[in-house]
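Hi there, hope your week has been kind to you so far. For a while now I've been wondering how a particular protein folds. I'm sending you its amino acid sequence along with the backbone structure tokens. Could you read through the record and tell me how the tokens relate to the sequence? Take your time with it, there's no hurry, and the full record follows here.
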Amino acid sequence: MKCPFCGYEESKVVDSRSTEDDMAIRRRRECLKCNKRYTTYEKVEDIPILVIKKDSSREYFDKSKIINGLLKACQKRPISRMQIEAIANDIEKKLSNQMLTEVKSDYIGEMIMESLKNLDEVAYVRFASVYRQFKDINTFMEEIKNLMTNKS
């Protein structure tokens, strides 16, 4: 690792510890030439996940799209931004833990709906109406009936 001060390539590690989230290792290094100290971080490289959309096109997984969809569904509901981000983080973590390189958008949509069903029924129905593309009031009512039946 090159010293950021003098460019020398040899250093010694004087301290090493995990970061608070245990997702990286923080190392304090000392340059063997100029004796200045600097910090480096080592972390596992994320494996990019491709999302297969309904039209069969592919794009990289983007957690902000989940957050934006949740924000719309949860608008004017007693749900905090922190709860919304927790759902998005949980979905991202589950996908990463499954070691998937590709995932269908339907699968992600179902994960979101399952999370919303447990959090807020109104937000769930709002999300479902867009995600499942309800064409009429009957399909909308059918989803509500299913929700109520599964609740009992």
Notes: The mean pLDDT is 92.
